[in-house]
Design goal:
By secondary structure, the chain is α/β, with parallel strands linked by helices. It has 2 domains: 114-120 and 251-529 and 536-574, TIM Barrel; 131-244, Diaminopimelate Epimerase, Chain A, domain 1 (Roll), CATH 3.10.310. 30% of the residues lie in helices and 22% in strands. It is built from 20 helices and 24 strands. The strands form 4 sheets. An 8-stranded parallel β-sheet has the order 8-15-16-17-18-19-20-21. A 6-stranded mixed β-sheet has the order 3-2-7-22-23-24, with no helix packed on it. A 6-stranded mixed β-sheet has the order 9-10-11-12-14-13, with helices on both faces. Helix 9 (252-267) packs across helix 10 (282-293), helix 11 (361-372) crosses helix 12 and helix 12 (385-401) runs parallel beside helix 13. The longest helix has 17 residues, at 385-401. Bound molecules: zinc ion. Zinc ion (ZN) binds next to strand 15.
Length: 578
């Protein structure tokens, strides 16, 4: 069955949250720090044979190249899949081959294609097919969840699973089986929080999975119990897997269709490269590879295989090291903790458990060390400060044992980190890949869980940047509904929660900083800054033409702004219909 929910608008959120974000509050200045360099001398990369002419030119524009000097040009010359030059209209027109296509930008702004270094690309589409959405504005509390769940159950045969996800319930942070049972007495139900790190099963699902009072929690996960009885709540992937392995499998065809649907969606918001940062099965890797071989993928993609359990290490030798110019296998992903309630921290917090690394630390370090030796990249999901420190310790030990050059291992999210960790990241060349739009949706929850003092250390984007740590920003969709880079850019500039609180006002990015973190730094996070991420001669012609000038929009307008054209390798992959 299919649920075609239109994407959630910011308005829906505001309505629900009762937070009337005024334009006056959000329009906090342009924050543009772009340098205009007059008439650059059109450097042509030595990679082009002498006499190479452009087959496509974009002229009469405001071209934000995002190069080291933040040069603004007028025009772009494209030869095949690469940028031949940027410069003045005159200089670029002089490079056009006879019969070359010219796109008159009519003053519109052009930027490098957006690079999302962390999302669950293949899962975005599943949120409207495999999973039933229990989200705003329809579902906002337990009563409306029950109403919507009853509706979903009516569409199923007795015994058929309902897999779903919820976003915010105003009256209960996490539902229990008692909330689900009255409206689903005969169907197994498992609903995850949108963030993906905890979920609730009803009694039928618990029965099928044989989870009883005597079922122990797996290492690194929690099967929650009250008075000895399971509540239906499961924290962390390892615990959630205890139930969801009984749910109907997500088929290869569903995965492929979801990838294609997501590709159309992401191209329409200006994304030209994405990193699927949490691939949990070799079949999913194969789905990307097959689509790429069939010529159906046009967005460039880097793939990371998640190793959730020690037994997953068997997959390491079975991975095919794909690299066909579009699809690349890049490395491995670990989750060392969960989200807020199960953040692995140095000090106690108000969540469910603060000292729960999902891997045994010793085994984790040994594993990182051997994977480091494969020459590939490693990414570790860390939310709590102890999780980040454990990952950094593991990286440091592996790099000391085998000092291969510039492994560029990554911390994903890095919500809470110590000041010392910033220095260690810098010293080790570790890249941070984080998601500023999380603050909107999860910031209030962190405030409750971590407390005011620690909130000063939440997602310290500016500190990292100023310390010389490479920071790439992205969406982590579908862990939030904000799949679009426009939301990520606005989030990095404002750091608003849905209650209008600013978290870390000294950590905001200017537009120019946010744009570079979503383009150049995204390329850097995949070792590809030499071929993409800025508009410079010799780089791939991955380009976005914006409807309005994003550098002049208030963050609120930027959030809902659109793009007119998306080009990958000089080919138009999205064109907005007016
Ligand atoms: Zn993620």
């Amino acid at each position: 069955m299919s649920h075609n929910h239109s994407p959630l608008s910011r308005r829906d959120f505001l309505k629900m949250a009762g937070a009337a974000l005024g334009g006056a509050v959000l329009a906090c200045g342009r924050g543009v720090e772009l340098t205009t360099v007059p008439a650059p001398t059109v450097p042509i990369a030595p990679t082009f044979p002498a006499g190479t002419m452009a087959n496509l030119i974009l002229t009469n524009g405001n071209v934000l190249t995002v190069d080291d000097a933040n040069t603004v040009a007028q025009a772009v010359a494209i030869a095949g899949d690469k940028i031949l030059a940027t410069g003045t209209d005159e200089a670029v027109r002089a490079m056009a081959a006879p019969g070359a296509r010219e796109i008159d930008l009519q003053g519109r702004t052009v930027t490098p294609g957006l690079i999302d270094p962390h999302l669950h690309f293949r899962a975005v589409g599943l949120n409207n097919t495999y999973y039933v959405p229990f989200i705003l504005p329809d579902v906002k509390d337990v009563a409306s969840l029950q109403y919507a769940l009853a509706d979903a159950v009516r569409g199923k045969q007795p015994g058929e699973w309902v897999m779903g996800y919820y976003m915010i319930l105003a009256d209960k942070s996490i539902p229990t089986k008692e909330d689900l049972d009255p409206v689903s007495p005969d169907n197994p139900v498992f609903i995850m929080h949108i963030g993906g790190h905890w979920g609730t099963a009803n009694s039928v699902a618990l029965q099928i999975a044989d989870v009883t009072a005597s079922t122990p929690s797996p290492q690194g996960g929690i099967i929650e119990k009250k008075n000895g009885e399971p509540t239906g709540v499961f924290y962390n992937h390892r615990a959630m897997d205890v139930v969801r392995r009984f749910a109907p499998p997500i088929t290869a065809d569903m995965i492929k269709q979801s990838i294609l649907d997501t590709q159309t969606l992401m191209a329409s918001v200006g994304v030209t490269t994405f990193h699927d940062n949490n691939i949990r099965a070799l079949e999913d890797l194969r789905a990307y590879q097959e689509l790429s071989q069939e010529g159906k993928l046009f967005l460039r993609n880097d793939l990371y295989l998640t190793l959730e359990w020690p037994s997953d290490l068997e997959k390491v030798d079975q991975v095919e090291h794909i690299d066909d110019g579009v699809t690349r296998f890049r490395g491995f992903k670990f989750l060392i903790d969960g989200q807020g309630p199960t953040a692995y921290c140095h000090e106690p917090h108000n969540g469910a458990e603060w000292r729960l690394p999902t891997w045994d630390p010793k085994m984790f370090k040994d594993t990182i060390r051997s994977l480091h030796d494969t020459g590939l990249q490693i990414c570790v999901h860390c939310v709590g400060d102890a999780a980040a420190d454990l990952a950094l310790e593991a990286y440091e030990a592996a790099m000391n044992a085998n000092p291969r050059s510039d492994p560029r291992h990554r911390l994903e999210h890095a919500i809470l980190t110590t000041a010392q960790a910033t220095q260690t990241m810098k010293d080790l060349g570790v890249v941070v890949s984080t998601q500023p739009a999380f603050i909107y949706l999860f910031g209030e929850g962190w405030n409750y869980i971590f407390g005011a003092e620690r909130m000063e250390r939440v997602m310290v984007t500016k500190e990292w940047m100023q310390s010389g740590v490479h920071v790439a920003i992205g969406s982590d969709a579908p862990s939030t509904p904000f799949y679009q880079p426009q939301a990520t850019l606005a989030g990095a500039m404002t750091r608003y929660t849905f209650k209008q609180n600013v978290i870390g006002s000294d950590q905001t990015f200017t537009f120019a900083e946010a744009l570079r973190a979503h383009t150049y730094e995204g390329a850097y996070s995949g070792h590809q800054e030499h071929i993409k991420g800025t508009l410079e001669a010799g780089k791939l012609a991955d380009i976005v033409v914006w409807t309005g000038d994003p550098s002049l929009l208030s963050p609120e307008d930027l959030f809902s702004s659109t793009v007119d054209l998306t080009l990958v390798g000089g080919k138009i992959v999205y064109e907005r219909s007016s």
